[in-house]
Design brief:
With about 210 residues, the protein is an alpha/beta fold. It has one domain: P-loop containing nucleotide triphosphate hydrolases (Rossmann fold, 3-Layer(aba) Sandwich). Helices cover about 50% and strands about 15% of the residues. It has a five-stranded parallel beta sheet with strand order 2-3-1-4-5, with helices on both faces.
Length: about 210
């Protein structure tokens, strides 16, 4: 694998934690600091590719959050490997700053909650790019669900978007630094509004980026 020259940032957490909003706030901050927009890539998983499409169809069709754990694991890992090959790694090798909504941390949280052993999921991600900074947004599942229900753009809730299951996933996200020792994983209190979270995020970004 080529040695990346760019910087890789991930925003992750349970559904409704505010990942997408934070991603755009990060982009705005980096551009305000003078980053050339051509050196910034905003991306997300699951992707719009074949595997990402299949994931979305399954999420809409199923209701049991524990069902099809291995199928979901296989699809998420295949989608991620394709994402790395086609978009993430080329951007990093080109020296870009990549900010991604969801990555391997989500797969570990969701699929381990479905019953897949943690170490098996960790092993499947060996050899993939390691983020230089991962921001995990921590919020109680009940609050996250209220946010999702208030979002007029959401026509329905997916199979994983149940309070009991999301709270289980939240517990895994809270322990994420222990699953990937040596990685720069920061768990942030996302009960706060974004305007209160951003000062903490800016400090982390300033320390990570030259």
């Amino acid at each position: 694998m080529l040695s990346p020259k760019g910087k890789f940032i991930v925003v992750d957490g349970i559904d409704g934690s505010g990942k997408s909003s934070l991603l755009f706030h990060i982009a705005d901050y980096l551009l305000e600091k003078g980053l050339d927009k051509n050196r910034l890539l905003l991306t997300a998983e699951p992707t719009d590719g074949l595997f990402g499409h299949e994931i979305r169809e399954l999420l809409k069709a199923e209701t049991d959050p524990k069902a099809n754990a291995r199928k979901f694991l296989d699809l998420y890992v295949r989608d991620r490997r394709e994402h790395v090959k086609k978009e993430l790694l080329p951007a990093l090798v080109a020296g870009k700053i990549v900010v991604c909504d969801r990555y391997k941390y989500a797969t570990l949280a969701y699929q381990s909650a479905q019953g897949i052993p943690v170490q098996e999921i960790v092993d499947l991600h060996k050899g993939l790019p390691v983020p230089g900074l991962a921001l995990i947004l921590d919020v109680p599942a009940s609050i996250a669900l209220e946010r999702m229900q208030a979002d007029k753009r959401r026509a329905y809730l997916e199979k994983f978007e149940r309070v009991d299951f999301q709270e289980e996933i939240r517990g895994v996200f809270q322990r994420m630094p222990g699953f990937f020792p040596g990685e720069n994983i920061q768990v942030l209190d996302a009960c706060r509004p974004l305007r209160e979270i951003m000062p903490d995020v800016k400090k982390l970004l300033d320390a990570f980026l030259p």
